[in-house]
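Lecture notes, part 5. Sequence design as translation. It can be helpful to think of inverse folding as translation between two languages: the language of shapes and the language of residues. The source text, in structure tokens, appears below.
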């Protein structure tokens, strides 16, 4: 994605002029805070800036006054999100809250290989009250090797006590010249032939969001290397089959954060999209009820289909009065995914009578290790494991309880078994096997 590929990698490259001047200058001269709060709407460069701060703090070669080198191991791993001392927490997903709870313990540990341990907490306003309290206690007495970078689209939902502990930077929305600058950088990088008037039109369409500008450019570049004003004006987002299939797969996994991330990444024509999805789900509903005879496109159960259709129908009706085009759809999807998630937990509890006996020999800590260590191999595999449970060890075989058939299918793929067994071997320090049990 252009937005990721052409993230500014130095302070000089930051597109937001105010941020470049204020935050950038103080960073270059090594005036660091122990906590930053980055405020701004989506796609305005908060995450980019957060990673840049982390690089300035930890770059192996940088001297005061210099930019980060972007070549050392630390710079590289921060840029691709794998640095062990830069911990990114998404407060909007459930895991964020748990992470914050044991944050107070974890921050005491020294960084593994860098000068600073950097915690980037995205959408920090989504934290629960108890998580806020844990965070506040840490912010009040931060260890000297820890720097917090909090980012939010909604600063009004943040407790004053948290804000007052941070150095606050307001990103506002990208100005037209700033977005033009960012779009030009990507166009140059991709060796595209884009007219000045076309770039300006893209920047206008992006409406203050760097991310949207990159997305529009990417969409145009997929068709042609030469982009003219007329191409930009003709651009109408479409719903493709691949779009739909990706989305259905995400729906089945019921991970609200992933679903929303996907929707945000698509620049969807919302009305047409809801129509398409509703048609498919309705068809599946009829198939499930035996009214129509065909192969369903999803594995969703009748009740799930009914609930989802109701919510999409409501979202569709709300499209006319909404302030953000995609909002009713997102609200519907979050509501749906979350009710399903609750049910899933209940099912698991019934299936496992006593957790202490059930996970004998392979406790929570090892399980979390397994989830974490699987991630670098395959993100979606780790996500599927997350909704499964360790049942126990039988000799050198770990038995894992799985709730859904499509999860079982995924986990049983030989390449996935290989990954899991390899990771298990690392954790247990002996050759291990894995066996799945459908719950
Ligand atoms: Zn470096």
């Amino acid at each position: 994605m252009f937005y990721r590929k052409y993230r500014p990698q130095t302070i000089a490259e930051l597109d937001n002029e105010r941020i470049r001047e204020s935050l950038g200058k103080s960073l270059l001269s090594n005036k660091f805070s122990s906590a930053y709060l980055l405020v701004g709407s989506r796609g305005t460069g908060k995450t980019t800036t957060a990673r840049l701060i982390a690089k300035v703090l930890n770059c192996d070669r940088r001297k005061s006054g210099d930019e980060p080198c972007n070549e050392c191991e630390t710079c590289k791993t921060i840029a691709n999100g794998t640095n062990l001392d830069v911990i990114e927490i998404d407060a909007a997903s459930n895991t964020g809250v748990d992470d914050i709870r044991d944050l107070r313990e974890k921050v005491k540990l020294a960084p593994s290989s860098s000068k600073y341990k950097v915690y980037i907490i995205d959408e920090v306003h989504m934290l629960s009250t108890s998580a806020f309290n844990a965070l506040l206690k840490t912010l009040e007495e931060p260890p000297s090797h820890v720097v917090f970078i909090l980012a939010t689209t909604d600063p009004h939902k943040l407790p004053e006590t948290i804000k007052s502990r941070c150095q606050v930077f307001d990103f506002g929305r990208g100005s037209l010249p700033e977005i033009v600058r960012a779009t030009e950088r990507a166009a140059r990088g991709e060796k595209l032939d884009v007219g000045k008037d076309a770039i300006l039109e893209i920047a206008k369409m992006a409406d203050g969001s760097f991310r949207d500008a990159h997305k529009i450019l990417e969409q145009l570049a997929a068709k042609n290397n030469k982009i003219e004003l007329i191409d930009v004006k003709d651009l109408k987002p479409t719903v493709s089959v691949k779009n739909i299939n990706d989305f259905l797969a995400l729906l089945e996994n019921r991970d609200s954060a992933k679903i929303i991330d996907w929707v945000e990444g698509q620049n969807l024509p919302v009305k047409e999209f809801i129509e398409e999805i509703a048609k498919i789900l309705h068809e599946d509903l009829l198939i499930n009820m035996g009214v129509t005879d065909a192969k369903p496109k999803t594995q969703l159960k009748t009740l799930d289909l009914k609930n989802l259709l109701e919510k999409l129908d409501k979202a569709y009706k709300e499209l006319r009065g909404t302030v953000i085009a995609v909002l009713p759809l997102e609200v519907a999807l979050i509501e749906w995914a979350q009710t399903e998630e609750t049910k899933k937990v209940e099912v698991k509890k019934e299936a496992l009578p006593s957790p202490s006996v059930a996970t004998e020999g392979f406790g929570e800590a090892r399980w979390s290790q397994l989830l974490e260590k699987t991630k670098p191999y395959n993100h979606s595999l780790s996500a599927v494991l997350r909704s499964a449970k360790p049942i126990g060890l039988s000799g050198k075989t770990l038995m894992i309880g799985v709730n859904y058939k499509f999860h079982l299918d995924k986990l049983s793929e030989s390449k996935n078994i290989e990954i899991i067994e390899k990771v298990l071997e690392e954790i247990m320090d002996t050759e291990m096997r894995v066996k799945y049990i459908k719950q």
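The translated text above is only one of many valid answers, since several sequences can fold into similar shapes. The domain at 2-170 is CATH 3.40.50.300 (Rossmann fold).
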